[in-house]
Design brief:
By secondary structure, the protein is an alpha/beta fold. The protein is built from seven helices and seven strands. The longest helix has 29 residues. The termini are far apart.
């Protein structure tokens, strides 16, 4: 087994049934972490856990909808009951519904707020007591390059939610550094994942698919960034990583 700062760390990952979450779980398990997977699709979580176990890794999974606080709390409870602690919380679950604001897709606005902002906050609320008890921990939040630069027209609400995650993460860093809890924000560009499938407006969906088909890079691009942040010595905090396809200008 490779010896590094990742070995035996207990890492909880939301949105772990596909894309960035699945890729991250597999990479961290390969490097010796104990991974705890949460996502809504029980069958997919079960399949990913089986793959990791078959490869010699350590993993468990829980059906978790991040918009339901009790389910996120159950995810953390399950991690602690199984592995005794939580070293890293990766708040990865997210949705992207691109559409001009004048289409008034208010239900989709609500959904993005519930998953992208409140889902992250529920993850923090669930894991923070455990990390404070341990007197150490690491919170990693997934945002987007569109939390830095607004994608408009179409991505105004999505960009707003990811900008909120950026501010939340910086605020957490400022509040929790004295508690020996590291905070990292990772803002990806076009990455191969199911995120691109969240758009219901036909013209916007065509636009998004066009971008992803041309320039999207593999999900393990983000997984490696997560690994990089975690494996740093305890006194080193990677505050923010922005990564996008070299070909992406947005």
């Amino acid at each position: 087994m490779e010896t590094s700062n990742i070995v035996d760390k207990v890492v909880v990952i939301t949105g772990a049934s596909s894309g960035l979450g699945e890729s991250t779980a597999k990479l961290l398990a390969l490097k010796g972490a104990k991974v705890v997977l949460g996502a809504r699709r029980t069958n997919r979580i079960t399949a990913v856990v089986k793959e990791i176990l078959a490869a010699g890794g350590k993993a468990i999974g829980f059906t978790t909808d991040v918009t339901k606080r009790a389910e996120v709390e159950a995810l953390i409870k399950g991690a602690v009951e199984t592995f005794g602690r939580v070293d890293v919380m990766v708040n990865n679950a997210g949705i992207m519904a691109i559409a001009p604001v004048n289409l008034l897709k208010v239900d989709e606005w609500d959904q993005q707020i519930d998953v992208n902002i409140k889902g992250v906050l529920y993850g923090v609320a669930a894991v923070l007591p455990q990390m404070l008890k341990q007197k150490k921990g690491h919170i990693i939040n997934l945002a987007s390059v569109f939390g830095i630069k607004v994608l408009a027209p179409g991505g105004t609400v999505y960009s707003a939610t990811k900008s909120a995650v950026r501010m939340l993460t910086e605020g957490l860093r400022m509040e929790l550094h004295s508690e020996n809890i590291r905070c990292t924000l990772i803002s990806p560009g076009a990455i191969e994942s199911e995120l691109q499938n969240g758009t219901s407006d036909p013209s916007s969906a065509k636009f998004v698919k066009g971008i992803y088909n041309k320039i999207a890079i593999p999900a393990d691009s983000v997984a490696r960034a997560v690994l990089y942040a975690i494996e740093q010595p305890g006194e080193v905090e990677i505050d923010e990583v922005v990564l996008r396809p070299t070909a992406q200008d947005l």
